[in-house]
Structure formats: C-alpha cells, structure tokens
Amino acid sequence: MTPNPSHTQIVQSWLTACAPHTPVSRALEAIYQHVHTETIARQPLCQASGRCCNFEKHGHRLYVTGIEAAYMFARLEGDNRARATLEQVNAARTRGDCPYLINNLCAAHTIKPLGCRVYYCDPTAQRWQEELSEYALAQIRAIHDEHMLEYRYGEWRSMLEQVIEAAGASQDR
C-alpha cells in the first residue's frame, strides 16, 4: 500500500509542476489566455477601484486551486519585491484584502489567478463571468487530474500561505 503524501509534499508537487515552461504551466497559461480572450470580447467595465481585491469590504471571497497558487508563487519566486511573505498574507487577512493590492492596483496583474481574471464589478458581467469561471475551473481540474496532482480548492490567502510554507520547507532541507 502506498502511503498518503503529506500536505507539504502535495504543495511541493504543485510547485514543481508549475515551474516555468512545464506542461502544467503551459496548460494553465492556455486557460488564462482563453479567459482573457473571452473577457475582452465582452468588454466589461473596470473602474480600477480595488473593490475586487477588498474582499471583506465588498462581501466576497477569492478562491483558487492548488496549482493556481503555486503558479503565481513560482512566477514571483525570483522577485523579492513582489513575492508575498506569511506576514504580508496575514496583514492582508487582517485588512480584509489581497496581499498584492497596492494603491488599488494589482502588483501581480499579469499572473493573477482565474477568479481575478473573471471577476468584474460590472453588473452586466455576472452571468457570463459565472459561466466562464465554471468552464475554466473544469479545465483546471482536468490539469490536476491529467498530471496526477491532488486537487484542492480554497480561499486565496489560505492557499497562498500553504504554498509559501511548503516552499520554505523545501528550502530548509
């Protein structure tokens, strides 16, 4: 019988799979590109108000998959200015926002997770963004399955904390 992998091993498998230029990264980027194309075609209104990133203030949550959190962390790994620390994630949780929200702008805009890519405050976007989100999440789930990566879906800051902790554990070895 094969032992169950530890939580840290699972998250480290996501980090390995999401290194630049891997099949998982390319598949995730293709989904993100599809979402971008579909979103641009609908021309939602974005007022750059930061509401999408002020979770508590505006009554919503951002949820991500394991590989999305790992993908973003892996892209920021060499950039100490942009990479969030556990302290920054905890401070963001206390404020009720995202650790990448700086002056109402996203400091990680080009590599943001799916939920950020489809969420718009524009009331005309609600129906299509739900449909697009469900479609893309199914595609991301398929990446997990195809590459035998455990699927987990959770609140953004919690998932980011898990990735930061696992990355630190692998560096401590």
Structure, explained:
With 173 residues, this protein is mainly alpha-helical. The protein has one domain (7-168). 54% of the residues lie in helices and 6% in strands. The protein contains 7 helices and 4 strands; from the N terminus they run ααβααββααβα. The protein has helices at residues 7-17, 23-42, 66-76, 86-95, 114-118, 126-146, 156-171, and strands at residues 63-65, 101-102, 105-106, 153-155. The strands form 2 sheets. The protein has a two-stranded antiparallel ribbon. The chain has a two-stranded antiparallel ribbon with strand order 2-3. Helix 1 packs across helix 3, helix 1 crosses helix 7 (156-171) and helix 3 (66-76) packs across helix 7. The longest helix is centred in the C-terminal third of the chain and has 21 residues, at 126-146. The two termini are 27 Å apart. 30% of the residues are buried.
Characterize this entry briefly.
The chain is mostly helical. It has helices at 7-17, 23-42, 66-76, 86-95, 114-118, 126-146, 156-171; strands spanning 63-65, 101-102, 105-106, 153-155.
